[in-house]
UniProtKB/TrEMBL annotation, chain A:
Pfam families per UniProt: Fer4_9
A single GO molecular function term of this UniProt record: iron-sulfur cluster binding
Protein name: Ferredoxin like protein
The 4Fe-4S ferredoxin-type domain, residue ranges: 25-56, 57-87
Keywords, ordered alphabetically: Electron transport, Iron, Iron-sulfur, Metal-binding, Transport
Gene3D superfamilies recorded: 3.30.70.20
Automatic annotation (TrEMBL), chain B:
Subunit description: Heterodimer of an alpha and a beta subunit.
Protein name per Swiss-Prot or TrEMBL: Electron transfer flavoprotein beta subunit
Segments forming domain Electron transfer flavoprotein alpha/beta-subunit N-terminal: 27-227
Gene3D superfamilies found in the cross-reference section: HUPs (3.40.50.620)
Cofactor(s) recorded in Swiss-Prot or TrEMBL: FAD
Family matches, as InterPro entries: ETF_a/b_N, ETF_b, Mft_EtfB, Rossmann-like_a/b/a_fold
Biological role stated in the UniProt entry: The electron transfer flavoprotein serves as a specific electron acceptor for other dehydrogenases. It transfers the electrons to the main respiratory chain via ETF-ubiquinone oxidoreductase (ETF dehydrogenase).
GO MF terms, alphabetically ordered: electron transfer activity
């Protein structure tokens, strides 16, 4: 059965989230492609605020608190700027129900 | 038992607190001393209101406290000021109960024990008066719990209270300097702020008489004080609920996400300017503010 969380505050939901940071980055951003990107859609769309524009027009990316939602991959305007895969088994985002 | 033929029964519930408690700045530990303890200013105002209302209504004013033995002096003072009777409800008699301080912290348990003792010893009160909240860790919840226990109306945090021609009228402070005037039906529980009236001084004869008066003590209802106090399970700042957004239309996942996040709409891509030149940085900021319409 699908459980709904509509009446749970976002921060409360986030308080139940753990991140097991894998050594291998599951998302790699090609900052050379980003330099020519005019929209920087990822900066706005990533719910975890993991994309930060740099002064040389590129992108600084940190995968440590990634929800693995895939939003960045889908909205990216740079074609193949983002290489996306899931973290290794047992790593990544963990949602505690209890 | 209350003399039901002699007008309304006004009960003033007073909390015995150390109004000069010391706090250890290093550990935060609070230490109290019975010698400096007594009623809070709000409770003293409640007693004065009780005395006035009982006099105006030709009723009886009884001061009641759920407190240990050292609180007897506070009740003697109430007698000296003109209370018709007093009653101490001893929290120490609760069977199997732990620290009485902890139980007294629970407004629900305090109200339950007080209401039980008042009903058993005095009958059903027409009016119960208290301070708006106790001076030690008071939340102001006890009067509301009392009203629930006694099944009567409540008017809390009053700055004025008067009884004329059989009508009880209160005035309550609202936000932004407004006031609310309340016609309070009896029976009722009213809590008052320490404002408007001051407790009268007892005369010498009454003070001497009160010194030797017998202060009735009843054990608190064990069931009431055995009730679990409210447990704080977690403390955190208020957080509003997540805003629910209507789902975006269309079936293309990319378009749906772009619409949902607004990544392409009504927004400029972020721009970072790094410079060591303070003048240029200031120009950048001013241009930005001008562009946003904040500067002419
Ligand atoms: S997958 Fe989601 S959370 Fe992770 S970086 Fe992309 S947009 Fe952010
Ligand atoms: S949208 Fe894609 S190309 Fe553009 S900055 Fe973000 S990751 Fe780089």
């Amino acid at each position: 059965m699908t459980q709904r969380y509509a009446d749970l505050a976002f921060d409360d939901r986030m308080a139940r989230v753990d991140f097991r940071v894998a050594t291998n980055a599951h998302i790699v951003v090609d900052t050379d492609v980003c330099r020519s990107c005019t929209t920087k859609a990822c900066v706005h769309a990533c719910p975890a605020n993991l994309f930060v524009p740099t002064d040389d027009g590129g992108i600084l990316f940190n995968y440590e608190q990634c929800f693995e939602c895939g939003t960045c991959y889908l909205v990216c305007d740079g074609g193949n700027a983002i290489s996306w895969s899931y973290p290794d088994g047992g790593q990544g985002v963990v949602f505690r129900h209890g | 038992m209350a003399d039901s033929g002699s007008g309304p029964l006004v009960v003033v519930a007073m909390r015995w607190v150390d109004t000069h408690a010391r706090v250890d700045a290093l550990t935060g530990r609070v230490s109290t001393d019975a010698r400096g303890a007594g009623p809070s200013e709000a409770d003293r105002c409640a007693l004065e209101h009780g005395l006035r209302i009982a006099q105006a209504a030709a009723g009886r004013c009884v001061a009641v406290s759920l407190a240990p033995e050292p609180a007897t002096d506070m009740l003697r003072d109430a007698l000296a000021c003109g209370a018709h009777a007093v009653l101490r409800v001893d929290p120490g008699h609760a069977a199997g109960a732990g620290n009485t301080d902890d139980r007294a912290d629970s407004g629900a348990a305090t109200a339950q024990a007080l209401a039980q003792a008042v009903r058993d010893e005095l009958g059903h009160p027409d009016l119960v008066l208290t301070g708006d909240h106790s001076a030690d860790r008071g939340t102001g919840a006890t009067p509301a719990f009392l009203a629930a226990e006694l099944g009567c109306a409540q008017a809390l945090g009053l700055v004025e209270l008067s009884y004329t021609d059989g009508h009880l009228v209160g005035l309550r402070r609202l936000d932004r300097g407004r006031r609310e005037r309340l016609a309070i039906p009896l029976p009722a529980v009213c809590s008052v702020e320490p404002a408007g009236v001051r407790l009268r001084r007892a005369n010498l004869r009454a003070t001497l008489a009160a010194r030797t008066a017998t202060i009735p003590v009843v054990p608190s209802d064990p069931a009431a004080l055995a009730a679990q106090p409210v447990a704080v399970r977690s403390v955190r700042p208020y957080r509003p609920r997540a805003k629910e957004l209507p789902p975006p239309q269309g079936s293309d996942p990319r378009q749906r996400l772009l619409r949902l996040t607004g990544a392409h709409e009504e927004r400029e891509p972020p721009r970072v300017v790094v410079t060591d030149d303070a003048g240029r940085a200031a120009d950048e900021l001013l241009d930005y503010l001008r562009g946003k319409g904040f500067l002419a």
